[in-house]
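Table S2 (continued). Query chain:
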Amino acid sequence: MTTSSNPATSIQRAAVLGAGTMGHGIAHVLSAAGIDTRLFDISEDAVASGLKKVTGNLDKGVARGKVTEEARDAALSHLSGTSDMDAAIDGVQIVIEAVPERMDLKKKIFADLGAKLGADVVLATNTSSLSILEIAQAAASPERVVGMHFFNPVHIMKLVEVVRTEVTSNDAAEMALGLARRMGKEPIDVRDAPGFASSRLGIAIGMEAIRMVEEKVASPEDIDKAMTLGYGFPMGPLKLTDLVGLDVRLAIADYLKVELGDRFDPPQLLRDMVERGELGKKSGKGFYSWEDSARG
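Corresponding output:
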């Protein structure tokens, strides 16, 4: 795609599909890297909300002295939003999909992208656990499909898992690795396997922490403190579960149970909390109270 040391330098325009928690964060770091970025969602309200969150995060960065006003303004000049898919993907070199974790939805989107975009356009999915090969097989030229699994909050977290399938071309994988570095991230190169590297380990720890709450071994706060102070985790597994969403973690655990066996069987407590609507920060309650955050 290019002979430069970083093949991602050829990327001038990108589209992000999905303006939710992950999508708007990915659009943020793309635009901050000087790439013209179009944020797409199916509703104008969702697009507007995503753009507003990017602006808010950049403003917070300025207020904290982490981002200059010039850098904020430059990032926003590279960012736009639309609810028109064709407009979003026009002229792009890469598309990053960040829609909900539903295989049927992702396959539909990749089939559409494969039909509309040339084989030289890299198609990336932000899935945290679903089979990328299955997603890729829905698209024309599945060799240009790669995983780019970002972490929340995207504009702060350094890690990106670049996941290659058995058919992913080296050009596509190198483009994704280079793009992650261009955005100031630290990529890891991972084979397409259930849960990849991070979700598989993260879910294992998270499920065991929930079992410990279920068995009244200790409070959520003390279990998290054990991991932050004892093992140097930046955040405890239960608070992280609240931030990711209990429903999201349950869906991943159910998938990993099917693929890898009963060691990923979700605790009944997690199922009960999701059924009650206790989804973590986004609902105002999970293992912690987030009522002020949910209202905001």
